[in-house]
């Protein structure tokens, strides 16, 4: 892996840590979950042959610090952070954007509010449960996650959360532990340190987000919705599928599951490159 150019960007209420590789038009990678920009380590070099690839830790994750650690997190604010990154690194041209999981939700909001700054967006498994016909059931599941977190602590709550993401949505008999992909082992300590913030601040805000379907319909030629080939039936796959159906767009299938950037990096990068240029 080539050494990136490292920078920090001051935004309202936070300082974002970012890294840039390559040359060409800007491709902004917005991570989701608790892993931060390191989740893209396996794909950035392949993409940097064609793009100026920028990735960053979302506010409150890893090296991107909050002024107020207890501040409520909002999708619109995270989308504005992405906008500030685009304005910094590509001030005169619209950017290509890839968002994964909760990062895809921030990217979708950015597209609906600042469409002139995005040439093309690939959104991989955004968990927009409000787009599902059984959204009320998932609201109850998310409330149970937060109640478990409050009364029993982090790992029992993560077990409930992980179980609810699985195929069939079995939230009555959760797995006793959360297993990270093997490729994430090197950054597991940082990921674990991010989990309380992710579960307590990001999950309730982002997974209650309602996308502007009518606005997205007018922008569907710039939006590619993607899911994992191996995650059929899991909650984030279902939300991507439902959103694509509501927008009348074709859903693209990327290698791996929800964490395909980590488990199948070379194949994932190739699919992403094609999706960005098609």
From TrEMBL:
Q: Name one Pfam family in it.
A: Abhydrolase_1
Q: Which InterPro entries does its entry note? A: AB_hydrolase (IPR050471), AB_hydrolase_1 (IPR000073), AB_hydrolase_fold (IPR029058)
Q: Which UniProt keywords apply?
A: Hydrolase
Domain AB hydrolase-1 positions: 25-139
| Annotated organism of origin | Streptomyces albospinus
**What protein is this chain from?**
Hydrolase
> What one GO molecular function would you report for this record?
hydrolase activity
């Amino acid at each position: 892996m080539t050494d990136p150019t490292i920078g920090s960007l001051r935004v309202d209420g936070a300082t974002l840590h970012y890294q840039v590789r390559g040359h060409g038009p800007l491709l902004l990678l917005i991570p989701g979950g608790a892993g931060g920009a390191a989740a893209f380590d396996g794909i950035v070099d392949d993409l940097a042959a064609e793009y100026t690839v920028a990735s960053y830790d979302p506010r409150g994750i890893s090296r991107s610090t909050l002024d107020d650690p207890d501040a409520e997190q909002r999708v619109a604010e995270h989308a504005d952070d992405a906008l500030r990154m685009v304005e910094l690194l590509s001030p005169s041209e619209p950017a290509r954007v890839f968002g994964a999981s909760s990062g895809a939700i921030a990217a979708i909001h950015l597209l609906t509010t600042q469409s002139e700054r995005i040439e093309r967006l690939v959104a991989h498994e955004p968990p927009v449960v409000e787009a599902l016909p059984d959204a009320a059931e998932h609201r109850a599941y998310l409330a149970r996650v937060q109640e478990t977190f409050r009364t029993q602590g982090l790992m029992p709550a993560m077990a409930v959360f992980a179980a609810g993401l699985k195929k069939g949505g079995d939230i009555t008999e959760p797995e006793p532990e959360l297993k990270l992909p093997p490729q994430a082992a090197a950054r597991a300590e940082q990921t674990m340190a991010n989990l309380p913030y992710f579960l307590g601040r990001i999950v309730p805000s982002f997974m209650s987000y309602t996308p502007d379907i009518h606005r997205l319909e007018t922008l569907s030629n710039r939006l590619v919705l993607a899911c994992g080939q191996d995650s059929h039936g899991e909650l984030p796959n279902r939300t991507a599928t439902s959103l694509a159906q509501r927008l009348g767009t074709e859903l693209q299938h990327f290698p791996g599951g929800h964490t395909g950037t980590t488990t199948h990096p070379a194949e994932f990068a190739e699919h992403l490159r094609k999706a960005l240029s098609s």
